[in-house]
Amino acid sequence: MSTKDSFKDIRLGHFTTTTTATLDAIHLSMTGNADAMALTPIATLLADIDEEARRLAVKSAVADLSQLYFMNSSCLSLLVRWVTSRAAREETSGYKIRFVANPNLKWQKRSLSALIALAPSVVSVE
């Protein structure tokens, strides 16, 4: 299975990502604080992840947010767009999106619950 040489991970002073692909999943880890400076890079990265997930026919895309302490509403809207775009394709064999949350961060519980409500057949939270 061939994957992209590397995803364009984000390296800002206050926000970083690490993205890897395995045989059955693409794993994204976000760390720090996602603010306006991270908006465009996150949009690009999520588009790349979606493209690769479909191309490689992986079973899931796992977004680990357990070390993401803050995400502004503009960046959160990119997650909404990713989820709704994936759900709109109605592919029964398409990849699922799994979020790994930090139970100590209340904003994650509220925000990720809303993402589940948008597309319960596509999204799950651990």
Keywords:
alpha/beta, Transcription Regulator spoIIAA, 5-stranded mixed β-sheet, 37% helix, 3 helices, 29% strand, disordered N terminus, globular, 126 residues
In short:
This protein has 126 residues and is α/β, with parallel strands linked by helices. It contains 3 helices and 5 strands; from the N terminus they run ββαβαβαβ. Helix 1 (39-56) packs parallel to helix 2.
Describe the SSE topology.
Layout: E1 15-21, E2 25-34, H1 39-56, E3 60-71, H2 73-88, E4 96-100, H3 106-118, E5 123-125
Would you give an account of this structure?
The protein is α/β, with parallel strands linked by helices and 126 residues long. It has 3 helices and 5 strands, in the order ββαβαβαβ. It has helices spanning 39-56, 73-88, 106-118, and strands at residues 15-21, 25-34, 60-71, 96-100, 123-125. Strands 1-2-3-4-5 form a 5-stranded mixed β-sheet, covered by helices on one side. The longest helix has 18 residues, at 39-56. The model is unreliable at 1-5 (pLDDT under 50).
In the CATH hierarchy, what is the superfamily?
STAS domain
**N- to C-terminal distance:** 27 Å
The overall pLDDT average reads 92
Largest sheet: 5 strands, mixed
H/E order of the elements? EEHEHEHE
* Strand residues, percent: 25-35%
Oligomer: single chain
